[in-house]
Amino acid sequence: MAATLVFPENNTECNEGKIINDTQSEVTFRWNEAEFANKYEVVLINLNTDVETTVESNTNSADIIIERGIAYKWHVLSLSDISDATAMSEEWKFYNAGAGAVNYAPFPADIVAPENGSTLTGSTVNLEWSGSDIDNDIVDFEVFFGSENPPTESLSSVTENSITATISSGNIYYWIVKTTDEADNTSTSDVFHFSVE
Questions:
Q1: Under a CB-based contact definition with an 8 Å cutoff, are residues 138 and 109 in contact?
Q2: Which residues are CB-contacts of 13 (< 8 A; sequence separation ≥ 6)?
Q3: 100: Cβ–Cβ under 8 A, 6 or more apart, which residues?
């Protein structure tokens, strides 16, 4: 059984914790215990740098020192001494509060479809993603699409969460989504790709 995450909550600003200095604070990560698990690994990824940190815990919480004013995503792996199996929780995103931050950059967009690494047929594809922002002030999404990795050609800027692109057989296509909010803060998704038969 996977642990269920409790805190920091998904798609929120985390303003609880002990301030260490201007750039760091200590946050207590909490989750509900998983059945049969006797130890856990908290996996934390800095969304600005993609640097991953893993912290082990024998209880359902862990105190972790993290950067202030930065977006993170995190999940918990449940482990057991009586089995090699691991169970992964959901993955949540949050901003660790910074000093005097008034407006936060949007979270990087998540892919919806087509599934990353999938193989498609046809002459068009509908690219879909989901976007979120603590301030709820996303203005638009700019989609970069092409056979280069990473793609540099902009398809268009749209306000909805999907766009149609022309594709042809025998090619691999890459795409990213740049999200912009009202304060002109931006975030860029991971590079997604698919191939066409």
A1: no
A2: 94, 95, 97, 104, 134
A3: none
The pLDDT value recorded for residue 102 is 63
- Evaluated on CA atoms 5, 7, 12, 13, the torsion sign reads negative
Give how far the C-alpha of residue 132 lies from the chain's centroid of Cα atoms, to the nearest Å: 10
Q: What is the pLDDT of residues 71-116, one digit of tens each?
A: 999 999 999 888 787 889 999 999 888 776 567 889 999 989 999 9
Per-residue pLDDT band at 16 (split at 50, 70, 90): confident
Domain architecture of the chain: domains with CATH: 4-96 (2.60.40.10), 110-196 (2.60.40.10)
**From CA 13, how far away is CA 74, in angstroms rounded?**
14
